């Protein structure tokens, strides 16, 4: 019980200390809100934009882009990871191209995505999907290849087909690593959605940041960043809960 309380209380205490120090430094040093707003100013701006309804459509747009990109990129990465793990030939043929596609900066491709897909949600979703694709593909590929050789040999001796071995052994055994890939992809999806909104988007928290920068409204920038951080933390915790629920039936067998 004490350990649970310490894990929950200590982060909150640290946050209060950091925010209090930030507030004190800003007030004592007389730093302009244009350079660094105090936490109290950020909270007021965040509350005003939420209560007035200004920020909610932008939060909804960012969430939609993040979840769509995560779904598309995650599904493609999972499928590609399984295919490369199951076929040495596919691994040799496609792996170099996958790596090359990932070393190209996505931000450099953003103008092309706008040109190809137009303004709106589509180019941001495509960028987010590309960012989510690789970590899930790599985690899936690695997890499926690290299955216990003794278990694989047992399945072969029992006459299991490749599909049965994949569904009943490799995927359950590799589930922790695959779910870890989903967690990484989730965080990257939020980053990709916000970065994609920097170019050509009229809605979303990234667009709010660009607009606030143009208006030199630093508290609004920090309010948008706070909303992004809150979304990331909540989604990550939700993913952890889903992961624990999915892993519970396997118990000690993993």
Structural features, described:
There is one protein chain. With 254 residues, this protein is mainly alpha-helical. It has one domain (61-247): MetI-like fold (Orthogonal Bundle), CATH 1.10.3720.10. It contains ten helices and no strands. Helix 5 packs across helix 6. It is found in: Cell membrane.
Q: Based on CA inertia axes, which overall geometry fits?
A: globular
H-E string: HHHHHHHHHH
Radius of gyration: 22 Å
Count of helix runs: 10
Roughly what is the average pLDDT, rounded to an integer?
Answer: 85
Keywords for this entry:
transmembrane helix; 254 residues; MetI-like; MetI-like fold; membrane; ABC transporter permease; mainly alpha
In short:
By secondary structure, the chain is an all-alpha fold. Helix content is 83%, strand content 0%.
What layout of secondary structure does this protein have?
Elements: H1 2-29, H2 39-51, H3 56-86, H4 88-103, H5 106-117, H6 121-145, H7 149-157, H8 162-197, H9 205-215, H10 218-247
